[in-house]
Design goal:
28% helix; 6-stranded parallel sheet; 2 domains; Quinone Oxidoreductase, Chain A, domain 1; alpha/beta; Rossmann fold; 13 helices
């Protein structure tokens, strides 16, 4: 079939992206699904910092490729061996495509499953196949998904079926932003009533962590960001305190206000400055949980003696430290109860003509989550 898609040919083009156009809107040829694969009509796809970092050139990718990993859509065709989905089902895409049989999957930690790492690095589907072409030349898949397009062929394990009561434009952001931020709170930190939680970086992931901490009963939820407007938004979503990052004395002020620091601090920005702040405001016995992905060469250092004597913890959390098939229905259930109003994270909607401008706005920190409507 032929469809419209946003193709990335070069990384590291200068801003503004509305002028340099790193994403080119092309007519793309898409093959049908092979064994274990599913064709979905993409209804909505979120613009994520992970996509932005690759556009900026901070994270190498196989090119040319169609980006996009945070999406939701409707099943339109099933490949051989797919028996647990039906045409017309609503689904959420996820980069956590797990085998279900390894030791990590057996422990409910599908985000650590290594089964598709090689195919993702090579820009293929799990089978090793490529189903995308432009002008007859094969192009690469992005995280096995490539949802900045009107349709996508993906491996069955990269989809979670959902009920049809949640609008797909809202469901799309659960795929990454909500699952990553809320999962860090609920799975990695396991926040309990009475705990204190800090969140450094208030994009879509950070705001999801704020909401989840409030829903889990945290006594203090401290929001930290360089953008004053985002501090106000975080208060509206459940933060009890808010501090402007990047100013002298901010970390000391947070420790003073929280009786020595916070039990858990979630870092979502993926920068060294954010990680240093997150570690500095954790209490004795506290845990710092980075979820933002920096460049692969970035390193964070700490005083080992203090790590021991203060019983500090540093624990990474990738994509919410859980299992999408289990966690996505849980998060949608909390949304239905009004405890995770993640629909309020959507800053606006875009069509293909606005996608490059949308990444400018994301880079400026002016938005939380923008949603692409591929069929608009």
């Amino acid at each position: 079939m032929r469809m419209k898609g946003a193709v990335l040919y070069r990384q590291g083009l200068p801003r503004p992206y509305a002028g340099s156009l790193p994403l080119r809107i092309e007519e793309v040829e898409l093959d049908g699904p092979g064994p274990g694969e599913v064709l979905i009509e993409v209804a909505a796809a979120g613009l994520c910092h992970s996509d932005l970092s690759a556009i900026e050139g901070l994270r190498p990718r196989r090119l040319p490729s169609i980006p996009g990993h945070e999406g939701a859509g409707i099943v339109r065709a099933l490949g051989p061996e797919v028996r647990d989905l039906r045409e017309g089902d609503h689904v959420i895409s996820t980069v956590v495509s797990a085998c279900g049989a390894c030791r990590w999957c057996g422990r409910g930690r599908a985000t650590l499953c290594p089964s598709v790492g090689r195919s993702r690095a090579e820009g293929t589907l799990a089978s090793g196949a490529r189903r995308l072409r432009v002008n007859g030349e094969a192009i690469h898949h992005w995280s096995g998904l490539s949802v900045f397009a009107q349709y996508a062929v993906v491996d069955r394990s990269a989809l979670v079926r959902i009920e049809k009561d949640i609008p797909l434009e809202v469901a799309a952001i659960v795929s990454c932003a909500v699952m990553t931020g809320a999962g860090a709170v609920l799975n990695a930190a396991r926040v309990r009533p009475g705990d204190s939680v800090g969140v450094v970086g208030l994009g879509g992931v950070g705001m999801s962590a704020v909401m989840a901490a409030a829903a889990a009963g945290a006594e203090r939820v401290v929001a930290i960001d360089v953008n004053p407007a985002k501090l106000d938004a975080a208060r509206a979503l459940g933060a009890t305190d808010a501090f402007l990052a990047g100013e002298p004395g901010t970390a000391a002020a947070i420790r003073d206000a929280t009786d020595g620091g916070l039990d858990f601090v979630i870092e979502t920005a993926g920068t060294l400055a954010a990680m240093e702040t997150a570690y500095a405001v954790a209490a004795r016995g506290g845990t710092t949980i980075p979820v933002g992905l920096p460049g692969p060469e970035r390193a964070f250092s700490y005083l080992q003696a203090a790590l021991v004597s203060e019983e500090r913890g540093i624990r990474g959390s990738y994509m919410g430290s859980g299992a999408p098939g289990r966690d996505i229905p849980l998060l949608l259930g909390l949304h239905r109860q009004g405890k995770l109003p993640f629909d309020r994270l959507i800053s606006g909607h875009l069509d293909f003509d606005g996608i490059n401008r949308g990444f400018d706005q994301l880079a400026d920190g002016a938005v939380l989550r923008q949603v692409l409507r591929p069929h608009a």
